[in-house]
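From the pipeline queue, job 12 of 40. The input is one protein chain; the requested action is below.

Action: predict structure.
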Amino acid sequence: MSDDITLPEADERIALKDYTEKAYLDYSMYVILDRALPHIGDGLKPVQRRIVYAMSELGLKASAKYKKSARTVGDVIGKFHPHGDSASYEAMVLMAQPFSYRYTLVDGQGNWGSPDDPKSFAAMRYTESRLTKYSEVLLEELGQGTVDWQPNFDGTLEEPMVLPARVPNVLLNGTTGIAVGMATDIPPHNLREVVNACVHLLDNPNATVTELCQHILGPDMPTEAEIISSRDDIIKMYETGRGSIRMRAVWQKDEEGGDIIITALPHQVSGAKILEQIAAQMQAKKLPMVADLRDESDHENPTRLVIVPRSNRVDLEQIMQHLFATTELERTYRVNMNMIGIDGRPAVKPLNKILAEWLSFRTVTTRRRLQYRLEKVEERLLRLAALMIVFLNVDEVIRIIREEENPKPVLMKRFNLIEMQAEYILETKLRQLARLEEMKIREEQNDLMKERDGLQKILDSAVKLKNLVRKELLQVADQFGDERRSPIVERAEAQALSETELVSAEAITVVISDKGWIRAAKGHEVDAAGLSYKAGDSFKFAVQGKSNQSVILLDSTGRSYAVPAHNLPSARGQGEPLSGRISPPSGATFEGALMGADSQRVLIASDAGYGFVAKLEDLASKNKAGKALLTLPEGAFVMPPQLINSPEQALLAAVSNDGRLLVFPVTELPELAKGKGNKIMNIPGAKVVSREEFVVALNVIHPGQQLTLHSGKRHITLKASDLEHYKGERGRRGNKLPRGFQKVDKAEVSDK
C-alpha cells in the first residue's frame, strides 16, 4: 500500500510558516475590506449594501407593499452574501431602527426592537419590510453607468461594488465595526450640516477642519440627549479622525411634585438599565436622598424616567451630578473614523479629507452618469435619424427589403448607415411610418439635441459639473434634511458624591473602650460608661458627632487616624477592634477622639508643655498607618486633644503636677499641621524625662465658662475674675494654686 503513495514535487511544497502567514493575511484583508469597514462612497459595509441592493431588485421601494423579511434575507444570502441568515437579518434590523440609525434605510412593519432592548426584535418570518424614501439617495443612479460591478460569490450574478450615494452617508448614519487589527467607530451626523460643509468645501477646496466645523457642529445622534464635549475636543477629534464624544441625559424638575424627570437618554442607552443601576445604589444604601423610581415611558413620551427625592430639601442638581458620574446617564463614545477610501485602502481620515474624498467620488459618479446619458442620447438620435431615412425613402427601403436576399449591407451602403441603424430599420414596424410619427420623431430629435448639448457643456466644464454636484446636494438636503436632534451644550465634568456626602447626617455617639474597641450609638443622650463591655475591658472615652463625619483618633505615639463613622458597628453589640480598620504602632494606646467639621480648630499638646492649634482636616489621614501629627519630647506623653470653638476669645489653662496654673489666650499658640508646637508652660526638660514635673491638665475655656480643679476629695471653682490672677505670658511657669491643690488630679470646664 505504501508503494502507491507518491510525494509531491519539491516545488509544490511550502513552509508552514509561509502558508499560515499568507492565509492569515488573506483572511485579515477579507475581514477588513469585505466585512467590517464601510466604504467612503456610500458609507455601507458589504452586508448592508447587499441588503439594500437585494431589496431594490425585489422591487421593495418606499411606495411598494411590504414583503416578508425572510424573503429579503433569503435573496441576500442566496444571491450575494453567503453567510448566516441571523447575521444578515440583524444587520437589516439595525438599518430599520430609528433609535440606531439617524436616517433609516429600511422601513419595517412588526416588532423591530425597542430602545430599551434593541435585540428584542421578532423573527424574520414575522416581520415585513421595504426600503425607505431616503434609500433612493443611494440607489437612484444605480442603473446609469455610475459605478463598477463585480460578480457575486458564485459568478452567476453581478452586484455593485459601491452604491452611487448622492450624499456622504458614511458620516450621516455612521457605523461601528471590528476588523482584524483595526476597528471603526463613526458617529452619525446631521444631513443639512454635512451638505453645507460639502458646499463650503466645493467653493473652498483648501478649507480647514475648523472652517468646516462652522457648518458641522458635531455628531448628531438619533436621540435628544445633550452632547457635552468641549468645542476644542470636537475640533481635535475631526482633525485627527480619533477621539471621543460625551453624551448626557436631559432632565427637568417636575414643578408639581418636585421630582426629577429624565426625558432623553444617551444613544444606545436603555432606560431599564438606568433604573437597574440607580436601584442597585439604593439597595446598597449609597443613595439615601432618593426615595423611589418610576418608569412612566409610553407612546407619547418614549423616555420618561421619574426619580423621587426623599424630601424637597434635597439638592436635585447634586443628585443628578452623582448619577451622571456613576451610571450610564452620561456616556462616552469612542470615535475612530476608519474607512475604506476610494483607493480601496483602509485609513483613519480627518473630516476635511473625508469630505474632499467623497466629493471626488461624487464628481466622478456624476460625470459617469452624464457620460452614460450622453451615450444613450446619441444612440437614440442615431436611431431617430435612421427612422427619418425610412420615412423619407419608404418605397426604396421596402423595395430593398423585399428584393434583396441580405438587405442589411445594402441599406448601409445605399443610405450611408452604421450597422446599428440598419438593424433598427429592419426591426421598425410599419405603423411607425404614419404621418403623425414624423412630427413626434422631429420633436423628440429637437429635445434630445438640446439635452445632448446641455450634457456636453457640463462635461466640458469643471465649473458647471461642480455647480451640478452642489445643486443636487442641496436638493437632497431640502428633501430629507431635518433639525439637529442632539443639542451641543458644553458642561463641566460630573463629580460623584463621596461616601460621607451620601450618608445622612444623624447625631451619633462614638464609644472607644480601654482595649481599643469601637462602636457607635444613635443620638447624643447615651450613657457610654453604662454600656456592656467584654470581660477585662471597660469604657475609656466617647465623642459626639454626626454619622457623615469621621472619628479622628490620637494615639500615645502622637499619630492621628481617621475612621468613617457611618459604617461603625452598632452600640447594641460590643463593637469591633480598631486594629481591623487602622494600623497603630505596637503597644500604642488611644488617648483621645474628635469629631466635627473640617475647619474645626483643635488643641494638640504633650505633657512636656508644648502644643499647637490644628484644623480637624489636618488630623485626617486616609492611610491605615495614620499621620505623624505630634512630635513628643523625650519622656513626654500625649495630652487628650481639646476642641476650640472660638479661638479669638478662648483661653488656655495649663496646670502642672506641682500645683501651678497658667492662663493665656489661645491665639498666642501657632496654627500648624503637625510638629512639636510652641512652649505652653515652662517645664524643665530634665524634669519631664524623670517625670518629676509635667502638665497634668490642659483646658480650653470659652467665654461664660468656669474651671473646676479636683485634688482628692477637694475641689475649687475658678470663675473669670479668679482666673485673672493666673494670667501670664505663654511659656511662663504660672502662679501657685492655693494650699491643698499642690497635687491636682483633674480639671473640668463647665458653664456657669
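Job complete. The first strand starts at residue 67 and ends at 68.
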